[in-house]
Write a structure and sequence with these properties.
Radius of gyration of chain A: 13 Å
Distance between the termini of chain A: 36 Å
Number of helices of chain A: 0
Number of strands of chain A: 11
Radius of gyration of chain B: 14 Å
Strand content of chain A: over 45%
Oligomer: heterodimer
Strand content of chain B: over 45%
Largest sheet of chain B: 6 strands, mixed
Order of helices and strands of chain B: EEEEEEEEEEEE
Distance between the termini of chain B: 41 Å
Largest sheet of chain A: 7 strands, mixed
Number of helices of chain B: 0
Chain lengths: 114, 117
């Protein structure tokens, strides 16, 4: 059971370039989330999805787009990367109601925008 | 709006000492969940505990214990007889129930614990 898998694990982008981060879960979870982690700021919610074909904005959505075409996948896109988007990105998934173990997180993607 | 305060940015203890990590929260929700996560130097987030707002029983798991006090809106985490492997950043988090039913997490800024051998 892989849980939540994020690809890639590391990436360096030039300002203005675009990229897509992929999150895949094999637990049949309804909810999926994208967070970013910055030094001294904890994790902040970017976007989330309550099911296939749905997406919603979180706390810091600007500069990002997401898609949930399949239940098991949640994609995070950066159309025109900016240095302020340098961060560690975490994907998470959960059942409809919070399970005993809360959320399952991926191992993170470290993105640097130069 | 949810708020989680982890006032201790960094803590250093000598191995075998006990250490308590503080977490204070604010919410208007009547039902909510509180979590603790551990982030070791390798970077992944490791779930430690979830507590419901209507269950104020303290919990102990090995060297870990949690003290939930609704009256003071606190959910503190104690490590007894600390070990070097406990060195990590610890995050307290509060559930944030959205109108569409999603139950997101609102994180504190974390406490970096260093256990000195």
């Amino acid at each position: 059971n892989a849980g939540v898998t994020q690809t890639p694990k590391f990436r360096v982008l030039k300002t203005g370039q675009s990229m897509t981060l992929l999150c895949a879960q094999d637990m049949n979870h309804e909810y999926m989330y994208w967070y970013r982690q910055d030094p001294g700021m904890g994790l902040r919610l970017i976007h989330y999805s309550v099911g296939e074909g749905t997406t919603a904005k979180g706390e810091v959505p600007d500069g990002y787009n997401v898609s949930r075409l399949k239940k098991q996948n949640f994609l995070l896109g950066l159309e025109s990367a900016a240095p302020s988007q340098t961060s560690v990105y975490f994907c998470a998934s959960s059942y409809l109601l919070s399970g005993r173990n809360g959320y399952t997180f991926g191992s993170g993607t470290r993105l640097t925008v130069v | 709006a949810q708020k989680v305060t982890q006032a201790q940015t960094e803590i250093s203890v000598v191995e075998k000492e006990d250490v308590t990590l503080d977490c204070v929260y604010e919410t208007r929700d009547t039902t909510y969940y509180l979590f603790w996560y551990k982030q070791p130097p390798s970077g992944e987030l490791v779930f430690l505990i979830r507590r419901n707002s209507f269950d104020e029983q303290n919990e102990i798991s090995g060297r870990y214990s949690w003290n939930f006090q609704k009256s003071t809106s606190s959910f503190n985490f104690t490590i007894t007889a600390s070990q070097v492997v406990d060195s990590a950043v610890y995050f307290c988090a509060l559930s944030d129930l959205k109108d569409d039913g999603a139950n997101n997490l609102f994180f504190g800024t974390g406490t970096r614990l260093t256990v000195i051998p």
